[in-house]
Specification:
heterodimer; A: about 750 residues; six-stranded mixed beta sheet; about 35% helix; B: about 260 residues; alpha+beta; two-stranded antiparallel ribbon
Chain lengths: ~750, ~260
């Protein structure tokens, strides 16, 4: 079969054994997250801690990774999740060029287990795989690890590495490749295994089963369907070439007269007409969109991104002022990565020169230390803990002596000596360089992750009441910190005074495209309840954010997945604080299910869930219709295993159902509906810029969604019949043995 | 393609400047393949003088009995021009090249090379890291393309099997897979390291790959999502790009080629 190399690489760091095993066992799960869920299910027993040597960290790529299937440069990094208080499974997702290089080296995924006796890195050059000493790199950042490994392997090596955060068991740490691509949350799993980095050079071939001409035609066809990053199929502003007036809200931000201003010479993004396939990569001008006119465009060198992807989304910048701060003027990252460090500041005007300078300064620190901000929750919590003044009532509610009213949580919780270690006057002051000094001070405390006595911070010491540094309380993660500090747990649930709109969801993680996606409130809530971290799902927003009118969006969805009676999948988008979505209905349940299935498929094949699905297109000649079968067409052409969209969707359901079973098994919980699928109370209250859930309707939403998946409504667990239908009878047997069949 | 016929430049000479050939006398030959006999007649008539270039060929394969060696003087009709300021490093060009020409996804044999400059530019990691080009430097990503060298074509003259030929009408320098034996000499002979092997040196089915310009419609340029690759009329840019590698002294001109060269240089 094409696409797959046929071999999965396994490295046992305890024994030093390196083995190559057949991929066949994993093909029903494609690769990526699907393969990883299977590995965790088969090999890692319930009760295993994320940092136990028995835990696996799986760098999952799939049959499409590394082929010319557009948007196929992704890697799913799956493990038991250190941020999660119960070490439930979750995945960090990284792009770049590392995953394709793993395929070219000859491997359909990389499974790492055990723990090395001393720091090591893994050398992979095609057939040659070695565990090498990383003593020289340990203690240094990600940049140094890249430089060292490129010196050894050659400048074409692709390196995935952790920084000091991963080494020092900061729970919010990442593994990063190709400078700006990070898989959040899993860095400390590598650190716990004494694994610094994985360097790869791959020179081999991936077979494409389709004929050269058929493949070329298919790739061309997919290019015509693609719009911009986040699924936009019409430009953000009306362009001269557009026949209709559909516009707004997309990341298709290129325009005539708008330049990558820091390119040499500057590059005009231009008209980017829908039929010009040689300007697809210019459409998404994210530097301009994120940092604003006159600032973002001026400092953009180009828009970077992943291997094989014509849709570019990483902003490569040139900010000369950074040299005054002692870091490179050239930085690159995107979305939340661009506010990881600068999130520790207040009072910087958005879309200003200082804003981009602070952002890129933070990138320089975070991406070297390998810090992951839990999609911004860490900074939101930090700002609340640093700024919110506790009232007497709040003190009482949190079990704090009301005499402490008038203090901020940090002032109450930290020892005076620890509190005084940070330059708070610079945090609140107006001097810009001072603000950057504060960012640096916080970041250094986080990456060092120390107790107040200077010993390595641990959750056990914190639970025993030993004082820690402020950085260590960030490093431990929100899910644990709220157990330690009840006022934070109350804030997470009620979300009354946080500077950001909405943050926490449940079980230690943040929301991600949650009820603020007010055109698909129920689907977004379902997505946010399912995973053991923020869901990292964009299927819903990529479709509803495509820029087409609401009526057309519903029309296209009904054509693809309907017809539906009793209501539409997508509501009018309203920002009113008390916006109640229309009641749950069949179309919404199918929409939610498809959002899950296509995310799992994208993360397993691998394809990019930050731009796909391609359910709509920029082509007026197609009346903006996209292609439901894109994923199936790509899969079939590459592997030679012909599958329809519906068949591939069943594979997606198999992957999701296995994940669900594994989560329930590790929780040993039969009542997943009420014990896992939680919603924070604030989601049912009116909030600015977000839709509001209704308690009764939310119960209906869960009923209908479980039913769509073939899961039991009472428990939220997959049924025997569903396991059997999906080829998971062996999983059903284990669940039955554990008393976890509904 | 106007302008190509005027720019038939050979040289520079040992101590002199470039010298234009007499167009009228060679125009009829310049776009087709000529045998050694034809070559001698033409070049003898116009008197090329001493052209100094990389004297490269293959060692140890000289033989009195080999068939007359084909020598090509025709310039290519077109060439690829790459714009590093536009390149976003997606490497779709490498995929298009290997998938549409070879039927496999294999950037290591792509005839356009971006991946090797992606991290730190053409420098090595020591000098390039953080200070040069590539994603670890100033974000500039240089796409290496075949210059479709004018005569004397380094890869072609180095090939011991005469497997690199000029194929009309585009006149790209193309590997004839039937003749190629996968020795890899061409990969060392190209100062810009633009030829590759699709397998181990001397492997049973190993063949060299180099840019064929896809018969005048290069797949890489068609695929580029930011318009960073253009197919344009050929001109000699071999003096504009610094070599990427030093051609080893061990590579010497084969006798059958050298004899030919000696006749007119």
């Amino acid at each position: 079969m094409g696409g797959w190399t046929g071999k999965v690489l396994r490295v046992d760091l305890t024994t030093g054994v390196i083995s190559k095993e057949s991929t066949d066992k994993y093909k029903p799960y494609l690769g990526g997250t699907g393969l990883a869920y299977k590995v965790l299910w088969d090999e890692v027993p319930p009760g295993t801690d994320a940092w136990d040597p028995a835990n696996r960290i799986i760098f999952g790529v799939g049959p499409l990774t590394g082929t010319g299937a557009p948007l196929s440069g992704r890697v799913s990094v799956t493990s038991l999740w250190p941020m999660h208080p119960e070490s439930l499974p979750a995945t960090g997702h990284m792009g770049g060029h590392w995953g394709p290089e793993l395929k070219y080296a000859g491997y359909d995924s990389l499974i790492i287990q055990g723990k090395a006796a001393s720091p090591v890195w893994i050398y992979i050059k095609d057939d040659v795989v070695e565990i090498r000493d990383a003593g020289k790199m340990w203690g240094n950042g990600i940049y140094r690890a890249n430089a060292e490994i490129m010196n050894i392997m050659g400048p074409e090596a692709h390196v995935a590495a952790i920084g000091q955060c991963g080494e020092n068991l900061v729970r919010g740490s990442n593994v990063m490749c190709d400078r700006s691509h990070s898989a959040g949350g899993v860095g400390s799993v590598m650190g716990s295994k004494n694994l610094k980095a994985i360097g790869i050079i791959g020179t081999g071939a991936l077979k494409v089963e389709a004929s050269k001409s058929a493949w070329k035609d298919l790739v061309h066809y997919q290019h015509t369907i693609l719009g911009a990053n986040s699924g936009g199929v019409v430009p953000n502003t009306l362009q001269s070439w557009q026949p209709d007036g559909y516009y707004g809200g997309t990341r298709w931000t290129a325009a005539k007269g708008l330049f990558w201003g820091a390119a040499s010479p500057p590059v005009e993004t231009g008209d980017c007409t829908a039929d010009d396939l040689n300007s697809i990569g210019l459409r998404t001008f994210k530097g301009y969109a994120d940092f604003g006119p006159g600032v973002g465009d001026k400092h953009t060198v180009k828009i970077q991104g992943c291997h094989g992807c014509p849709i570019r989304c990483h902003i490569a910048t040139d900010v000369p002022a950074l040299e005054q701060l002692g870091v490179s003027r050239y930085q690159v990252n995107t979305c939340n990565g661009n506010s990881s460090g600068s999130g520790f500041t207040i009072g910087i005007t958005s879309r200003s020169e200082n804003n981009i300078t602070a952002s890129q300064y933070g990138v320089a620190l975070c991406d070297d230390f390998g810090w992951w901000s839990d999609y911004g929750l860490a900074q939101a919590d930090f700002k609340w803990l640093a700024q919110h003044v506790l009232t007497a009532e709040e003190c009482t509610a949190a079990g704090i002596d009301p005499v402490n009213a008038g203090k901020t949580p940090y002032q109450y919780r930290l020892t005076a000596a620890e509190y005084a270690k940070l330059p708070w006057a610079k945090f609140t002051g107006s001097d810009f360089v001072g603000k950057m000094d504060f960012v640096k001070a916080v970041m250094i405390q986080i990456k060092d992750n120390r107790m107040a006595d200077g010993t390595p911070a641990t959750w056990e010491k914190m639970q025993a009441g030993q004082p820690a540094t402020l950085g260590a309380y960030i490093a431990v993660g929100a899910g644990r910190l709220e157990k330690l500090w009840p006022e934070l747990a109350i804030q997470h649930q009620e979300n009354k005074a946080t500077p950001s709109a909405i943050n926490y969801v449940k079980m230690g993680h943040i929301k991600h495209h949650f009820t603020e996606s007010s055109d698909t409130v129920q689907a977004a809530a379902l997505l946010n309840m399912m995973y053991n971290r923020d869901p990292m799902c964009h299927t819903h927003t990529n479709y509803t954010g495509n820029g087409l009118p609401l009526a057309l969006q519903n029309e296209i969805f009904n054509e693809l997945f309907g017809p539906f009676e009793g209501g539409n999948a997508i509501d009018a988008e309203l920002a009113a604080p008390d916006f109640l979505p229309t009641p749950m209905n069949k179309a919404k349940a199918v929409f939610a299910k498809m959002c899950f299935l296509y995310m799992e498929l994208h993360n397993s094949l691998t394809l990019c869930n930050y731009t796909l699905p391609g359910w709509a297109s920029p082509l007026k000649s197609r009346n903006y219709r996209g292609e439901r079968n894109l994923e199936a067409m790509m899969y079939s052409a590459v592997t030679g295993d012909a599958k329809t969209a519906q068949q591939l969707e069943d594979t997606g359901l198999r992957i999701l159902t296995l994940f669900r079973a594994d989560t329930a098994r590790r929780m040993n919980e039969k009542d997943m509906r009420n014990k896992h699928d939680l919603m924070p109370e604030y989601a049912f209250h009116a909030h600015s810029g977000a839709g509001t859930l209704d308690h009764a309707d939310w119960e209906v939403a869960k009923d209908m969604f479980y039913e769509e998946c073939g899961w039991d409504k009472t428990t939220g667990l997959p049924t025997q019949a569903t396991y059997d239908r999906l080829g998971l009878s062996d999983v059903a047997a284990v669940m039955a043995g554990a008393g976890l069949l509904p | 393609m106007a302008g190509i016929k005027k720019a038939i430049v050979v040289g520079p000479g040992a101590g002199g400047t470039s010298k234009e050939m007499e167009i009228g006398k060679v125009a009829e030959y310049i776009h087709k393949i000529v045998t050694r006999r034809e070559f001698l007649q033409v070049t003898g008539a116009v008197g090329l003088g001493a052209a100094t270039f990389y004297l490269i060929g293959c060692g140890g394969s000289s033989s009195e009995s080999v068939a007359p060696r084909q020598v090509f003087v025709a310039n290519a009709q077109g060439m690829l021009v790459a714009e590093p300021s536009r390149c976003v490093g997606c490497r779709r060009c490498e995929l298009a090249c290997s998938e549409y020409n070879d039927g496999v996804s294999k950037p290591s044999i792509a005839r356009i090379k971006v991946g090797r400059n992606f991290n730190v530019g053409p420098q090595d990691a020591t000098t390039g890291f953080g200070r040069g080009e590539g994603i670890w430097g100033n974000h500039r990503i240089v796409q290496d393309v075949c210059h479709q060298c004018p005569h004397p074509v380094p890869c072609q003259l180095a090939c011991p099997n005469g497997a690199i030929e000029v194929v009309p009408p585009v006149n790209a320098r193309v590997v004839n897979a039937a003749k190629c034996r996968g020795c890899g000499i061409c990969t060392k002979a190209c100062p810009w390291a633009m030829t590759s092997l699709n397998g181990p040196v001397d492997g049973a089915s190993t063949k060299a790959t180099k840019c064929s310009l896809c018969n005048g419609d290069p797949e890489c340029a068609r695929m580029c999502p930011v318009g960073a690759l253009k197919y344009v009329p050929w001109q000699n840019v071999t003096k504009d790009f610094p070599p990427r590698q030093v051609v080893p002294a061990s590579i010497q001109l084969a006798a059958d080629v050298k004899d030919t060269c000696d006749k007119c240089h």
